[in-house]
């Protein structure tokens, strides 16, 4: 698991508009990277909309959402809820693995691999400032607001 002070693993993924977004190009700004299991599901919608609702209160902090969904699914999610930030497609879950959020899950006895809902605040130098593994959808915006207020 990543801990504060560790370098943030690189990110280079396609967003919902078909453009490649790279974490390295955002140096000089704080970045919140949040991982969610699937676009347009109740918990993920709550989390994404909660972040949309606080985006105006976090200064120049960039918000990036990442899930295994295809860019087209990310675009539908963004269009439906007017999220207004980049949603990145990690279809091969390589970035999720680098952030230690691609994990074995168990649902009614069925085991499968999936995203552990998590969020990471990365400082302007590309270092993990905060790491929130297994975060609830409601706590993601609250934790971000508390962290940027410091």
| SS-derived structural category | alpha+beta
Helix/strand order, N-terminal first? EEEHEHEHEEEEH
Stretches where pLDDT is under 50 for at least 5 consecutive residues are none
- Beta-strand content bin: 25-35%
Walk me through the structure.
The structure is a single chain. This protein is α+β, with helices and mostly antiparallel strands. 26% of the residues lie in helices and 29% in strands. The protein contains four helices and nine strands, in the order E-E-E-H-E-H-E-H-E-E-E-E-H. The chain has helices spanning 42-54, 71-81, 94-98, 139-148, and strands spanning 12-15, 20-22, 31-35, 62-67, 86-89, 102-107, 110-115, 118-122, 128-132. A seven-stranded mixed beta sheet has the order 2-1-5-4-3-8-9, covered by helices on one side. The longest helix is centred in the N-terminal third of the chain and has 13 residues, at 42-54. The chain is globular and about 40 Å long. The two termini are 24 Å apart. The model has no long low-confidence stretch (mean pLDDT 96).
What does this entry show, briefly?
The chain is built from four helices and nine strands, in the order βββαβαβαββββα. The chain is of the alpha+beta class and 150 residues long.
Labels describing this entry:
single chain, 150 residues, alpha+beta, two-stranded antiparallel ribbon, 26% helix, globular
Task: Please give the structural blueprint.
Blueprint: E1 12-15, E2 20-22, E3 31-35, H1 42-54, E4 62-67, H2 71-81, E5 86-89, H3 94-98, E6 102-107, E7 110-115, E8 118-122, E9 128-132, H4 139-148
Parallel strand pairs: 3-4, 4-5
Antiparallel strand pairs: 1-2, 1-5, 3-8, 6-7, 8-9
Helix pairs in contact: 1-4
